[in-house]
Records
---
Amino acid sequence: MSLTNDEDTGAIQQFDFSVDLLRAILWQYTTATNLQGLLNQKAAWYDTNQTQFWEDWYTNVFDLATANDFGLSVWSIILGLPLFVNTGTPTGPVFGFDAQTGYNFDNGIFGGSTSYDLPTETKRIALQLRYFQLTSSGTVPETNRMLAYVFRNFGQAWLIDYHDMAQAYVFNFPVTFDLEYLFNSYDILPRPAGVQSTWIDATLVYFGFATGDFNFDNGIFGG
């Protein structure tokens, strides 16, 4: 995964994929126009078929922040994280050909289960969180640096340590349905072993007794 700060996030070095074939010309051939013409043509071929290939590979596969669906599928296998949602086969009547209730080719057993891909941006977030989950120690400063990187295009996010074997992730931006599903279904938010972890959408108003909170006279029970 390509990150931004080598010391804080463990990013790998940046690669230069360019190939300067003209450096191979000996000084005595610097005036050989035919030879230079051939090398210029070969250099142009390398720019298209070597340099551009690896730059595209880096962007579309290697970097989790920009990977396309193919690259994300590769990372999904590497990190052991499925990127789809299965809708289960309903329970109920036994196999049969009753048009209303029987499980048959069009109703249940053979046609009732469907898989849905997560949105591409959600896949990127899921795999970055999974990568961090596998490679970090889960400390609060380390996790907050990760949150600042992963959710930089969404808004502020931070981790609170309650110092009682419990912690909470706070997202100061609306948590969309796909992110909510991700947080609730994948246990993807990093946490140390044995620590209870929850998450909070800070843009929502929760039950309480402060002015504006949902309470007996304001919203939930009597508003």
Note: The chain has six helices and five strands.
---
Amino acid sequence: MTAATTVKAPIPAGTWKIDTTHSTVGFSVKHLMVSKVRGTFENFSGTITVDENGAPSVQAEIDVTSISTNNAQRDGHIKSADFFDAEKYPTATFVSTGVRQNGDDYTLEGDFTLKGVTKPVSLDLEFNGTNPGMGHGTVAGFDAKTVINRKDFGIDIEMPLEGGGVVVGDKITITLEIEALQA
């Protein structure tokens, strides 16, 4: 992380662990050109580290085998080699490379690895504040969003529709609702 792309974190120095009980990693993708399929990943972890100078860094991991779209058949297909090839690539990772101010919010830059392919991504990040918590320590809240192209990560299955278009869109919107607990 370079000083030119890093702003001081709005949370105190230390290590913050993602509280998976109070956080969500979700996504949506265009289906049949007219609607969206939404889903979540049930298993994920992550750490926000803020050094004494206030520079933040983020590391996160998603268990892609924990995908849930509320349809077991579809989930099985997404885990297959057609999409995630989850047997060979069971995790996706994110490692931050910088944070910059973006108006009242932030842009979190980092390297995202999915299906063995690493690409830079930018997440629009909103800081929701801190709270003393409920007896387990201080918590901080964040919302983040990015859009990736699945083909950039080797998920290039084509499922054309008879009348034109495709079954699954190329653009995937990833949304994060994160609560982190100061360790």
Note: The helical segments are 72-79.
